[in-house]
Design brief:
The protein is α/β, with parallel strands linked by helices and 196 residues long. Helix content is 55%, strand content 12%. A five-stranded parallel sheet has the order 2-3-1-4-5, sandwiched between helices. Helix 2 (38-47) crosses helix 3 (51-60), helix 4 packs parallel to helix 5 (97-108) and helix 6 (124-138) packs across helix 7 (146-160). The structure holds BIS(adenosine)-5'-pentaphosphate (AP5). This is Adenylate kinase.
Length: 196
């Protein structure tokens, strides 16, 4: 089901801590894809003190989503910076139905599309444990305490979870068990991708 440009565009979906960023590192090498993590782009801007970073920080520190308008514009710029890419892994985007609609329209305008959305499934207890552990070493402001992590889960349940239905209606939704070793999970994901 590769599209006209023989690209493959994947959305990695899942709650905070589900392993999207970790798995994207392996998949981007294997399939020669450009990995775009909106969280990473925001953190890069925060670190460099840009206007975008200052704006995003106020939301990220609380575990709230950054407004759609800002995030959509940023994502489109990231795609446009990579005209030679064989395809993209979108990690942490879309996170709202408005973002998913914007992504579909934007890709369509470039003769591209989302080929599959793959969700990594894990329960909240496992995710909280992973995030608190990472917070200790990375210093990520939104991993520091359980209250912020729970707020990120609430944002996910309210605004991001409805995307499952959005992609199911397009027959593009797949899910894999996100608990196990990193290698085991990569294998589950590659099975889904190779069956597309
Ligand atoms: P973002 O950076 O996207 O954070 P997130 O969704 O909360 O995702 P994480 O990075 O926490 O988790 P992940 O699924 O990538 O897991 P990872 O591989 O890192 O977003 C941060 C914030 O930016 C948002 O809250 C929001 O404010 C803003 N934002 C971003 N995108 C936005 C958007 N589209 N719209 C609006 N706002 C947006 O793994 C987590 C940990 O677990 C790591 O330490 C890892 O080593 C470990 N781990 C991974 N896999 C395993 C495994 N199999 N076993 C054991 N440990 C594992």
């Amino acid at each position: 089901q590769l599209n006209q440009k023989h690209m493959i565009n994947l959305v990695l979906f899942g709650k905070p801590g589900a392993g999207k960023g970790t798995q994207a590192q392996f998949l981007k090498e294997k399939y020669n894809l450009k990995h775009i993590s909106t969280g990473d782009v925001f953190r890069y801007n925060i670190k460099n003190g840009t206007a975008l970073g200052t704006l995003a920080k106020s939301y990220i520190d609380k575990g709230d989503l950054v407004p759609d308008e800002v995030t959509i514009k940023m994502l489109e710029e990231e795609v446009d910076k990579n005209p030679e890419a064989d395809g993209f892994i979108f990690d942490g985007f879309p996170r709202t139905v408005a973002q998913a609609e914007a992504l579909d329209n934007f890709l369509e305008s470039k003769d591209m599309k989302v080929d599959a959305t793959i969700a990594l499934e894990a329960n909240d207890e496992v995710l909280i444990e992973r995030l608190l552990e990472r917070g200790k070493v990375s210093g990520r402001s939104d991993d520091q305490d359980v209250e912020k992590i729970r707020n990120r889960f609430d944002e996910y349940n309210l605004k991001t979870a409805p995307l499952k239905e959005y992609y199911e209606e397009q027959n593009k939704f797949h899910s894999v068990n996100g608990i196990g070793t990193i290698d085991e999970i990569t294998l589950r994901l590659t099975k889904v991708i190779e069956n597309l």
